[in-house]
Amino acid sequence: MTNLEQNTEQNTEQTSEQTSVLITGGNKGLGLEAARRLGERGWTIFLGSRDEGRGRAAAGKLTAGGANVVMVPLDVTSDESVAEAVRLVRKHTDRLDVLINNAGAPGRVVAPADATADEIHSVYDTNVYGPIRVTHAFLPLLQAADHPRVVMVSSGGGSFAVVTDPEQPVSKMHELAYSSSKAALNMITVRYAQALPKIKFNVATPGEVANRAFAATDMNNHTGVLTVTEGTDSIVRLATIDADGPSGIFVDRLGPVAW
Fold it and tell me: Where is this region: Disordered (predicted)?
């Protein structure tokens, strides 16, 4: 068992009913599955969803399964929406134990020669500015927690080591927006971790880099060979690390990923 797995096991012994988590993009895919798994631990789930109807439907399913869920209308590209989300969460709690920045946009996979600043900006608004916007807004609630954790959901495509490996499929996916946005998110996470040592900031990718495998989600038209549950293994593991766990690391479900 790795140190990270040991930390996870130890953390499950804590009083889970007092643990709260906000998950952006929580109405489907990896976000919804992470919510389901953490809800089974007795956590309070603040389910962020840009589409309020889909969010309420997803929250209803989780609630029917026994989870304690509060649906939070949340568009990570909107300052006003994020501010309203903070107000809503504050009505239920005076602290936030875990933030999972899961909401992401793939872009249109535009070839580098055809990519424009507008194309890059639209992806960065969700994948880079979004996590910054949400993290900044929720920092006071995170800092009020005894053992706060932030999980950034990235991608192997954000790793220079992966993208420059000719054996990796992503090395042949010629686009600028998505991979560069995830590389930026990785750096942002490290800088947060260095500057705010009382909060655990870590990066998860839902794939298996060594096996060149992806989790099946809407983003890849469900062509991935890993299940959505397997895809959330790294996310859940980082969300449940204990106070002695690592900060500023990048992992998939098998272990560390090279930057």
Answer: 1-24
Tracing tokens 């979004």 back to the chain, one arrives at: 130
When mean pLDDT is compared across 42-56, 65-79, 140-154, 199-213, the lowest value belongs to 199-213
Q: Domain residues for 172?
A: 3-254
For residue 142, give every residue at least 6 positions away whose Cβ sits within 8 Å of its Cβ, in sequence order, or none: 95, 96, 99, 148, 150, 199
Query: For residue 221, which amino acid is it?
Result: N
Query: pTM of this prediction?
Result: 0.91
Interatomic CA distance for residues 57 and 71, integer angstroms: 9
Domain of residue 64, CATH code: 3.40.50.720
The residues carrying an active-site annotation are: 178, 182
Q: Number of structural domains, the chain? A: 1
d(CA 131, CA 100): 9
Q: At 188, is the secondary structure helix, strand, or coil?
A: helix
Pairing, β 250-252 against β 255-256: antiparallel
pLDDT in tens, 17-29: 489 999 999 999 9
So what's the pLDDT on residue 219? 64
Report which of 171, 237, 242 is spatially closest to residue 205, judged by C-alpha positions: 237
